[in-house]
Design a protein that fits this description.
- This is Transposase.
- It comes from Caldovatus sediminis.
- Helix content is 59%, strand content 9%.
- The protein is mainly alpha-helical.
- The chain has a domain at 34-111.
- It has a two-stranded parallel ribbon with strand order 1-2.
- Helix 3 (43-60) packs across helix 4 (66-82).
- The protein is globular, with a radius of gyration of 17 Å.
- The two termini are 19 Å apart.
Length: 112
């Protein structure tokens, strides 16, 4: 679904408990968990989390407050999605690559 925010995680007990799932749903976030025994399902999420920790969290510490760490994380996500040029996406930021991907799908949908 276009425009839907999804939180993908492993099957750890903290991610599949009822309170956590309810909190995601109340915030308008669709929960998603990987398949049992399929480590590749979560590989992209783990990679991004590792990049955030390395490039935003650990590099800039110590933090003056929790808010400062949260804002630094938001800045990193914005930079990564809108300005970081990646070779796998044709040297485009991920947000631009996603827009182009959906633009390619629209003519096919109209033809059907």
């Amino acid at each position: 679904m276009k425009g839907c925010l999804t939180h993908h995680s492993g099957r750890g007990s903290q991610y599949v408990c009822i309170r956590y799932t309810d909190r995601l749903l109340r915030a308008g976030i669709e929960p998603s968990v990987g398949s049992v025994g399929e480590s590749c399902d979560n590989a992209l999420a783990e990679t991004v989390i590792g990049l955030v920790r390395t490039e935003a969290i650990h590099r800039r510490r110590p933090w003056r407050s929790l808010d400062a760490g949260e804002y630094a994380t938001l800045d990193w996500v914005d930079w990564h999605n809108r300005r970081c040029r990646l070779a796998p996406t044709g040297d485009m930021p991920p947000a631009e690559a996603e827009v182009r991907y959906h633009e390619q799908l629209e003519p096919a949908a109209l033809a059907a």
